[in-house]
Amino acid sequence: MRFVLGLGILTGFAALGTALVTVLRLPFPGSVVGMGLLWAALSLGVVRLHWIEGAADGLLATLGLLFVPATVGVIEYLSAGAAWALWLLVMLAGLLLGAGVAGLLAARLVRE
User: Fold this and answer.
1) Among candidate residues 42, 44, 20, the one with its CA nearest the CA of residue 32
2) 2-24 and 30-44 helices cross at what angle (nearest 10)?
3) Among candidates 62, 64, 11, 63, which has minimal Cα distance to 35?
4) Which UniProt keywords are given for this protein, alphabetically ordered (predicted)?
5) Of the candidates 20, 46, 42, 49, which has an alpha carbon nearest to the alpha carbon of residue 33?
6) Which of 52, 49, 50, 48 is nearest to 12 (CA)?
7) What is the distance between the alpha carbons of residues 56 and 58, in angstroms, rounded to a whole number?
8) DSSP state at residue 34
9) Pseudo-torsion of CA 33, 35, 36, 42, nearest 10°?
10) Which of 18, 72, 76, 100 is the most buried (most CB within 10 A)?
């Protein structure tokens, strides 16, 4: 029962954060705002840690599984990175050349 209560509290703060972001048109993710509100509620003692501890531990235990699809996708497209390596080198060289020229021009203009 405590797990369900904790999950409800966590979900409620996430929903509250999303609602605030939507209503106030804030440039932040709603879940981040909800996490900030949860932190404030925990700091003020409005929410007790033991209320959400079981649900938070359960969610953290499965967090590693959420990274599996992303890791598989990165590994699958590693061969595509080799094809892009030349383009990345060209862009890096252009960036360094442009930054170098801009730095030299700025140094010259400062001296004058």
Assistant:
1) 20
2) 120
3) 11
4) Cell membrane, Membrane, Transmembrane, Transmembrane helix
5) 20
6) 52
7) 5
8) H
9) 150
10) 18
Residue 79 token pair: 């061969």
Does the reported pTM lie above 0.85?
no
Amino acid at 3: F
- Helix axis angle for 68-76 and 78-111, nearest 10°, is 90
Give the residue extent of every domain in the chain: 1-79, 80-111
* Span 55-67, pLDDT tens digits: 999 998 888 888 8
Angstrom distance (rounded) from CA 62 to CA 69 = 13
